[in-house]
Amino acid sequence: MGQHTSSAAASKSPIQHSSRSLTLPIMLGLLVLTTIVMLILAMFKVAAFFDFHALGFQLLLIFLLIVNLNLLMVLFHQSPVATGQEKQSRRKFITLSSSYAKNSAMGGVRQKMTAGIAAVTKKRNPKSKNPIIPAGATDFAQYKQMCNVCQACVEACPTKVLRPSLSLENLMLPELNFNDNACLLDCVKCNEACPTGALRPLTAEEKTDIQIGYAVWLRENCIVIEGKECAACETACPNGSLQLIQSGRFRIPIINTGRCLGCGACQAACPASPLKAIFIEGHKSHRQS
Q1: Which residue in 60, 184, 218, 232 has a CA-CA distance of 20 to 30 Å to 93?
Q2: What does the alpha-carbon distance between residue 191 and residue 199 come to, in Å, rounded to a whole number?
Q3: 55-82: per-residue pLDDT in tens?
C-alpha cells in the first residue's frame, strides 16, 4: 500500500514540475518579445516616449534587460540535468554577466547625462521674460483681469499653441507656446471663442498689424555655429522679417524687430535641441507693426 502511494506521488510530480517549469520560459519569452517590440517602436519613432535619447526609455530598457538576465539565471538554476558543478559555473557566469550589463548600461546613461548637462550649460535658455498672449488682448494686466480661464480659446486654437500656464502667478491663464507650432496669421479662432472680452474680436487683416512680440536669436544655441547648414527660421518666416546674411564663415539670421509680428513660426521650425536657437520675446502691451 505504501509502495503504491509512493509510486502515485512519483507519477504526479513530473507533471507538476513540468507545468511549473514552463511558466518561467513563457515569462522570459514575453519579456524578450516586449523588449524587441519597444526597440522596433523606437526605431520608427512611433511616439515621443519611444526614443533612444529619452532617459525614461533608456532606464526601462535597462530594467527589462536586468529582469531577462535574472529569469535566465533562475532557469539555469532549475535545470534538472545540471550537476552541482555545472549549476555553480552557470550561476557564476550569469551573475557576472548581469553585473556587467547593469554596470555598462548605467555607465552609458551616466556618461550621456553628464555630456548632455555639460553641453546644455554652455547654452542659453530660450524663454520670454514676459508671458506671450494672443493678438486682441492688447495689455497683459487687462487680459489677466478679464480672463476667467475657461479655456475656450485653448480648445478653439487649431495649432494648439495656446496652453494654460503652469506658473504660480498666472496659473491656468492661456498663454502662447511656440516650441511645436506657430500662430497662424489669418486665424482669429481664439478671439471668436472668448466669452469675456479678454480677447477682443479681430479680423485677419487687423491681426497682421499687431505685434505681440519679436524674435530673438541665440548664437550659442544655433546649429549653424556648429558648422551645420540650416535656413529653417528664414524659410518659416511668413512676412520676411527674418533673413540670413553671411557673417564670416556662417550665415546667421538678422531680424527686423519692427516688422516681426511674433507669430512663432521661426521658433517652431528651429531644429536646435534641447534648447531652441530662436524664440519669441513677448510684449506686455501689444504694438502696431
Answers
A1: 60
A2: 5
A3: 677 778 788 888 878 777 777 665 554 4
Q: Which three cell numbers stand for residue 196?
A: 469675456
For 257-269, write each residue's pLDDT tens digit.
Answer: 999 999 999 999 9
The per-residue pLDDT for 9 is: 46
Dist CA 181 CA 191 (whole Å): 18
Nearest to 157 by CA among 139, 130, 137, 134: 134
The span from the CA of 194 to the CA of 267, in Å, is 26
Burial string for 194-227 (b: 16+ CB within 10 Å, else e) reads: beeebbeebeeeebbebbbbbbbbbeebbebeee
What value, to the nearest 5°, has the Cα angle with vertex 200 and ends 199 and 201? Answer: 120
Sign of the CA dihedral running 183, 187, 188, 190: negative
Question: CA of 255: how far to CAs of 209, 244, 279, in Å?
Answer: 17, 9, 12
3-state SS class at 163:
strand
Cross-strand bridge partners of residue 176: 162
HSE toward the beta carbon, residue 45, CA cutoff 13 A: 5
Instruction: State the Cα–Cα distance between residues 22 and 15, nearest whole angstrom.
Output: 11
Which pLDDT tens digit goes with each residue over 240-257? 999 999 999 999 999 999
* 98-104: Cβ within 8 A, 24+ apart: 98/66, 98/69, 98/70, 98/73, 101/65, 101/66, 101/69, 102/62, 102/66
Domains observed in the chain: 2-121 (no CATH), 140-288 (3.30.70.20)
